[in-house]
Amino acid sequence: MASLTSSQLGAPTRHRWPADGPSAGADLIGRDDTMDALHRCLAAARDGRPSLVLLDGVGGVGRSAMATWAARTAEQAGFGTATARCSLLEQDFAFAATRQLFTAPRDADLTTPDHAETPGATHAAMQRLLARTAELAEDRPLLLVVDDLQWADVPTLRWLAYLVRRWSGLRVALLGTICAGEPVSDRSTLDELGAFATRVPLAGITLDEVSGALAHAFDKPVSAPFAAACHRATGGVPFLLGELVGAIRTRERTGATIDERGVAEIGPERVAHTVLNRLRRTGAASVDLANAVAVLGDGADLTSAAQLCGLGGDDAARAVDELCAQGVLTADPRLSFAHSIVRNAVRRALTVGAGIAAHTTAARVLHARHAPAEEVAAHVVAADLTTEPWVGDVLSRAATAAVDRSDARAATRYLRQWCRLPEGGDLRARTLTRLAAVELTVDRDAAEGHLRQALEVAESHGVRARAAACLSSLVFDLHGAAEATRVLRTERDRSGDADDDHAGSLDLRILAFAAQPGLVPAAAECRSAPRPAPVPDWRVDAVAAHHAWRRGEACPDVAELAERALRDGTPDCLGDQPFVWSAVGALFLAARHDSCRRFAEPAVRLARQRGWLGFAARGELLLARVARAQGRLGDALDLVLAASSTGRDRHVALPDLVVTHVERGELTEAHRALTDADADDPAATPRLLHARGRWHAARGDHARALADQLACGRAYLSGAVVPEVPCHPWAAWSAHALGRREEARELAAHGVALGRRTGHAGLLGASLIVAGLVGGNRGAGADGPAALTEAVELLADAPLMLARALTVRGSALCASGQETAGVADLRRAFDIGIKSGALPIAGSARRELRRAGHRPSRALTGPDALTRQERTVVGLAVAGNTNRQIAERLFLTVRTVEHHLTTSYRKLNISGRRELAAALPTG
């Protein structure tokens, strides 16, 4: 597609000072470079190369004028244009600026949340907006202009950041203006948007341009000192320069002569004062109306502004005409200040008391006119209004609207104001609990404090139960399972048995926390079973499933309970998270890996969206275990690293990190993770002992490995719990390596018996491998070869353990003269090890093949050896992204990116990043 020509865009020319004086059109003086940048932006968009330009500058420097010029130029070149002007008082109105961009009747529902989805997500709305943008840009190129972007509501900023990440190929240009020194609604998202932008700073015009403007304004040349004084006084800001010229003319009409010293006395603040004086001369009605617009915010309607300042319809209309004629307001048809300097000067002129009184009146006026709840609530908060009987209802509805639009910050402001109302008892406790729920993504420590307050002021057991449920779940997220259980026990002791429903609910939650993935509870909790309680049945099933496993019940029965709980439950609140993960964890323990993954992935997404980081980390930990069990070691490492970098219970993930590194042959990294782990933590000890034993075994120190695995088994059995890790097969393996054949046979027999009793194919298969290795397990009804054959059949869905079984069986077959079958097993084991990234397994199979006089299949190297994630990371690195940029784009940690690159270098047989492009195939 051809680029825009100069004639199509109206090529920029050197601007002279306009004939009607410096305040009209002066903002375009000296902006040739800026116009060139905007021409390039529009030309790129016309060619299907979307671009973003951000104009930065102080108030009055001409940002809005340049935005208007860009929109007019784009329209003349055949672009569609859409413009939004953000307002400080509209920051709490979700998608307020976005709705200004999409004004067609058919676009009314674009930003309405889809209540069929989780209310914590705006993803569906963003997808609709993106699709509508693409549709508009199909007919003709599109320019989106957002003025005063620093005041944009947070959902709008997030949508713009979403748009620029996904607009490849769209004929769209985005122009934003940012006023320096003004408060920013969401600095992090604005910075993210800025990373994709061409930043064009707008500075004041030069001294020569100021001198020329003054000569034109006064119809005579001015002295160099006078021009320099004017330049210093205004910083070259066109708006201030125009106002300064007006102030000088006013003084000269009184007979005064203004020289450079007089200019210095006027200064910028005096310029603002001059604006106010000019405003006051228009009359009391105009001043009152300007004050009303300053309080209501840009975009105010005339009726509300008139009611706020007590003007009748005709008087208000005349005041608007006068203010527009004076260049103070614009009306199109809603009322806005023509310039932020004027608006800020008017606001600063209001005393604190007058401002509070004005916001109070504004809240009453808007409520009486049935304005949207969020619009009324903004003034309720600004006035700290607590006396009106309707305030609580307005704040509640405003908070609901903000939550529906995923604006937690606004919802938090409204609910915090609601908590200032003179209410107590259960109503206050419910409000505090609701506030804490939305504070989770804003201020987690404040959420904890508000839940503790709710527990203190609640009167009924039902309200106390909900507060205790949310508090214990949040405390688990912040401080770990032990502290969460302590919260529940304290409430249990306080309430006693006066209310069976409340007591039963608390008891069930205590059991649920004892069943969290990776934790080993006290013996009494392990032996307890959930008693029927007046809570939804799915919660009882969720806890019962986990405890059924721990008592050694059959895996199919455990899985049935867990799946029923997850099918019947509606686990979308913080208080229900312990039950969700009890059930999902039970599915993993019962070796239902596909089901575990199916339920865990959406639950992790929900937890991330709601800010339940501790529960999200537990879910990622379970998904890492599933990935490892299914031979996806690259995915397992990504997930366990994500889990170990989140929350204050991160040490719970470290044993899994150790085992994953050991499976991949990364013993140095495994040792580093071991040194980070807390061996004295009772919750982590059994799994940590197992992980350390695996590391010792990988290093050939089977004496220490055996000791750790036996200690792990004792830790579980002390609570009468079936171990969550296969410590007995690994202990048997190390005992065999030490030549302690009988001990190995006994340990293997124990694992076989437990595996047969529970129906756990993984535990049974792993135990049968060692049983076959040491010469059979007559008690299990299988000799050595039969045990190995059964193990291979059982482990079809567990690639890593299957490869171990194939290696042992293949070696035994070769030793007994069945070389063809044995070599086939060994080559299959080698291929599984290579495909999974389990280098030690592949190495073991290779050694056995060579011992039999054969070579393995050629190891997969080069680009074909890269995993999907490794290919993605390498591609981004070749494109020039830094490790941090790759991490942010793929939602990984920098450490994970470094690991993927290091592994890729090894597979590609190169030394570093500079050789990547040459090592990859072209085309």
From TrEMBL:
<dbReference type="Pfam" id="PF13191">
    <property type="entry name" value="AAA_16"/>
</dbReference>
<keyword id="KW-0067">ATP-binding</keyword>
<dbReference type="InterPro" id="IPR000792">
    <property type="entry name" value="Tscrpt_reg_LuxR_C"/>
</dbReference>
<dbReference type="GO" id="GO:0005524">
    <property type="term" value="F:ATP binding"/>
</dbReference>
<dbReference type="InterPro" id="IPR027417">
    <property type="entry name" value="P-loop_NTPase"/>
</dbReference>
<protein>
    <submittedName>
        <fullName>AAA family ATPase</fullName>
    </submittedName>
</protein>
<dbReference type="GO" id="GO:0003677">
    <property type="term" value="F:DNA binding"/>
</dbReference>
<dbReference type="GO" id="GO:0006355">
    <property type="term" value="P:regulation of DNA-templated transcription"/>
</dbReference>
<dbReference type="InterPro" id="IPR036388">
    <property type="entry name" value="WH-like_DNA-bd_sf"/>
</dbReference>
<keyword id="KW-0547">Nucleotide-binding</keyword>
<dbReference type="Pfam" id="PF00196">
    <property type="entry name" value="GerE"/>
</dbReference>
<dbReference type="GO" id="GO:0005737">
    <property type="term" value="C:cytoplasm"/>
</dbReference>
<dbReference type="InterPro" id="IPR016032">
    <property type="entry name" value="Sig_transdc_resp-reg_C-effctor"/>
</dbReference>
<dbReference type="InterPro" id="IPR041664">
    <property type="entry name" value="AAA_16"/>
</dbReference>
<dbReference type="GO" id="GO:0004016">
    <property type="term" value="F:adenylate cyclase activity"/>
</dbReference>
<feature type="domain" description="HTH luxR-type">
    <location>
        <begin position="859"/>
        <end position="923"/>
    </location>
</feature>
<dbReference type="InterPro" id="IPR011990">
    <property type="entry name" value="TPR-like_helical_dom_sf"/>
</dbReference>
<feature type="compositionally biased region" description="Polar residues">
    <location>
        <begin position="1"/>
        <end position="10"/>
    </location>
</feature>
<feature type="region of interest" description="Disordered">
    <location>
        <begin position="1"/>
        <end position="28"/>
    </location>
</feature>
